[in-house]
TrEMBL record:
(R)-pantoate binds at Q84, Q177. Keywords: ATP-binding, Cytoplasm, Ligase, Nucleotide-binding, Pantothenate biosynthesis. ATP binds at residues 53-60, 171-174, 208-211. The reaction proceeds by a bi uni uni bi ping pong mechanism. It is found in: Cytoplasm. Catalyzes the condensation of pantoate with beta-alanine in an ATP-dependent reaction via a pantoyl-adenylate intermediate. This is Pantothenate synthetase. Homodimer. Pathway: Cofactor biosynthesis; (R)-pantothenate biosynthesis; (R)-pantothenate from (R)-pantoate and beta-alanine: step 1/1.
Amino acid sequence: MSSSTGPGTAPPRRGTAAGDAARAGRPLLVTTRDELDRVRAGLAGPVAVVMTMGALHEGHAALARAARERAASVVATVFVNPLQFGPGEDLDRYPRTLGADLDLLGREGVDVVFAPAVEEVYPAGPPRVVVSAGELGAVLEGASRPGHFDGVLTVVAKLVHLTRPDVVLFGQKDAQQLALVRRMALDLDLRVEVVAVPTSREDDGLARSSRNAYLGARDREAAAVLPRALRRGAGRADAGAVAVRAAAAAELRGEPRADVDYLALVDAVDLRPVPDDHVGPALLAVAARVGSTRLIDNVPLVLAGAAEDGSTRR
Ligand code: PAF
């Protein structure tokens, strides 16, 4: 694994299994760490890795495309990580659609897919040593999902060690995951570039998520209140933090089917709530249950403060 390199467009090395599969329009599927080691050794660099839990949609396709644009070889991982699911969460009903996932990844020019079984990733059983997300992992999503981000970071660290990427790409939609992976890369010297890819959205603004598939027709319509609230909040960024929160909250109140867990205006790096007089970049984040489906979304914005003469300052 080397640190960041610039974008590259070279195809995978000729004569390798990954190169042959890519030329045939489908990724090479590997399921064991030994196979992965062999295939990884033949990949032309820089190597980009996109980590997923499968059930792929256009949002993942955007990640794969961004990876394709900046690396000579692209590896995607498909692994539903039990460690990041709490008791009563949807591990068992999480959709498993490997055939369709391979088709999508093939269309996006992914060279190799690593889709291991649980025993391949955790050969010694549930790990006794895990990565701790610390206080960054206890706020926002972490407040209602204790241990979730320890599970995420542990598997991300393992997949980085197994796939040895130059660059890993994560969606802006999971802003807390992104912030934590960035921090882990720094704190644990992962020596990998972490790239954020903008949130991919449906026509009405709803952020693409595997969980959208659980929404019935009425809930699907109601769910569009999340991006509307974020847009309305962001539209008040020039008026400062208080106005942003108030505008977003007013929009959310207008949709009784959305049971809001949190609406937070936070620093994008340390995830702490920004003070009312904050000026500069921030993240407006929301989580709500619509029907039985919990949805999250966020938008980065730059806050200006209201000066005494009524003008704005940045
Ligand atoms: O974002 C996800 O799909 C998962 O949290 C990840 C990063 C693949 C780890 O399991």
